[in-house]
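If your schedule permits, I should be very grateful for your opinion on a structural question. I have a record of one protein: its chain in single-letter code and its fold written as discrete structure tokens. Would you kindly read the sequence against the tokens and tell me how you understand this chain to fold? Thank you for your consideration; the sequence and its tokens are set out here.


***
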Amino acid sequence: MAFLFRGEDKHIEILKTLSKELKIPTKHKVLLFIVEKHQTVVGEREEYYRKMNKYSHELKTLKAAIQGTYDSEKHLKELVGVENEKVVTDRD
């Protein structure tokens, strides 16, 4: 199947650059390469976003746990009545 690509100058420059970087001799083959790799790129992007969301959730959970630790230490100081003394923890 043949097609005619009439890109603007900026598109032609991008294709020339990709042709050099990918060592593909023609702009037509560069376009075919891009079309063929589209599914792979989309799959990799979706996997990246899944991991990013997972790590973001883990980070939020970790931050909440740390904040809970500090809040409990503060509450413990108030209960014990030791406001000016440092409470020794395993993090110190």
In short: Residues 9-78 form one domain. The chain is about 75% helix and 0% strand. The mean pLDDT is 87. The first helix runs from residue 9 to 22.
